[in-house]
């Protein structure tokens, strides 16, 4: 009963991350695109909730084989609702995993905000959930080959959530091209509200991945907060040196970078490892956003790739460095097992390659049905009015 109650609360917290992301992304954009940017995230909840209960959960978590889950749980067939004496009911695990899928899809929207056609977005995410997310989730958490054969670690979604969403966002951003008008975040208060909700939800994201009120969950709880604050220390510290000012946006970005980095490692490392992961991931994400993006010229509108793709990759690799059997049962490089770094590297490369190719193919198919990008007039006017017929603010 205690485990069921614990994971139930964690599922609610993870659900909260998607609306939080809507506010975070909404504040990062322009006033004329606040609602359209938020709608990408809220539509993710709707689309994923429908697909997940029909077939998505089955594709990801049916026994199947090393590559594909199968159809055992279609329409939640044989997914138990009864609360067992030990562990959690199957349907609760289904809902917990649904919230993970929803926030993964919402993260992608940060790369395409202010220019992607909403109809194309709905078609794309529907296909992406079924043909990309369910496969990667099965490989890592559903008895697939990344877990069973490679032996890579991903406690709460470094590869499944962050690398997958970040890489998908980058591919879409490259296919869509740059925005006609790029502006600074219009409402940092809204950004702060969204980031705070996402941070709060992350406690459920990481601790709930223990699937019970255990000592591993407590390690994940402490490590989550520790990495977040050390992410802030790194990001704001770099800002203070480079631009001579500690910014609020940098504070929020540093926290999210640290949270992304600790996600795959939360239940496998000590607090010292969490500190190092927070520092190194935030530094890497800062470099990606401040230097790599301008140099390469891609328009990752709200830094989905810079925070999640880069942060997830760094976190996954550092899991192989700092993992210790004293916490999660597996030793990494610093505990005498350098092969875990190689295992993590393989998982990262496989995930990046699969997600990049499939995202491109899905987007191309969608482009034959409807344009991926809105027309120039709609982009200039703003998507709030042209697509949704609403305004976030009075003129």
TrEMBL record:
It is a multi-pass membrane protein. Keywords: Ammonia transport, Membrane, Transmembrane, Transmembrane helix, Transport. Signal peptide: none annotated. GO terms for cellular component: plasma membrane. It is found in: Cell membrane; Membrane. The chain crosses the membrane at residues 6-26, 38-60, 94-113, 120-141, 153-176, 188-205, 217-236, 248-266, 272-292, 304-325, 345-363. Its main location: membrane. Gene3D superfamilies: Ammonium transporter AmtB like domains (1.10.3430.10). GO terms for molecular function: ammonium channel activity. Residues 6-393 form the Ammonium transporter AmtB-like domain. Belongs to the ammonia transporter channel (TC 1.A.11.2) family. This is Ammonium transporter. It comes from Brochothrix thermosphacta (Microbacterium thermosphactum). The gene is amtB.
């Amino acid at each position: 009963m205690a485990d069921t109650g614990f994971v139930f609360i964690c599922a609610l917290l993870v659900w909260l991350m998607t609306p939080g992301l809507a506010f975070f992304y909404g504040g990062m954009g322009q006033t004329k695109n606040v609602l359209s940017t938020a709608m990408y995230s809220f539509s993710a909840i709707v689309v994923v909730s429908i697909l997940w209960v029909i077939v998505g959960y089955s594709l990801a978590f049916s026994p199947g084989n090393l590559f594909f889950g199968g159809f055992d749980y279609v329409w939640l067939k044989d997914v138990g609702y009864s609360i067992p004496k030990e562990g959690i009911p199957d349907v609760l695990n289904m809902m917990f995993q649904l919230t993970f899928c929803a926030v993964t899809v919402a993260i992608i929207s940060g790369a395409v905000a202010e220019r992607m056609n909403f109809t194309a977005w709905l078609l794309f995410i529907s296909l992406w959930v079924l043909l990309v997310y369910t496969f990667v989730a099965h490989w890592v958490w559903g008895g697939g080959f990344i877990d069973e054969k490679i032996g890579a670690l991903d406690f709460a979604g470094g590869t499944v959530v962050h690398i997958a969403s970040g890489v998908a966002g980058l591919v879409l951003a490259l296919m869509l091209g740059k925005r006609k008008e790029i502006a600074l975040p219009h409402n940092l208060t809204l950004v702060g509200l969204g980031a705070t909700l996402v941070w709060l939800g992350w406690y459920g994201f990481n601790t709930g991945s223990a699937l019970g009120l255990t000592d591993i969950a407590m390690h994940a709880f402490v490590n989550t907060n520790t990495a977040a604050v050390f992410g802030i220390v790194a990001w704001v510290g770099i800002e203070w040196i480079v631009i001579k000012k500690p910014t609020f946006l940098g504070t929020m970005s540093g926290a999210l970078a640290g949270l992304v980095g600790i996600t795959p490692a939360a239940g496998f490392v000590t607090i010292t490892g969490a500190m190092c992961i927070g520092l190194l991931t935030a530094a890497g994400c800062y470099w990606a956003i401040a230097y790599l993006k301008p140099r390469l010229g891609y328009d990752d509108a709200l830094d989905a790739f810079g925070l999640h793709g880069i942060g997830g990759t760094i976190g996954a690799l550092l899991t192989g460095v700092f993992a210790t059997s004293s916490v999660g049962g597996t030793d990494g490089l610093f505990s005498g097992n350098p092969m875990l770094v190689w295992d993590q590297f393989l998982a990262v490369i496989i995930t990046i390659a699969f997600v990049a190719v499939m995202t491109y193919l899905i987007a191309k198919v969608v482009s034959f049905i409807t344009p991926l990008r809105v027309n120039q007039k709609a982009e200039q006017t703003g998507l709030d009015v042209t697509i949704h017929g609403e305004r976030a603010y009075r003129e």
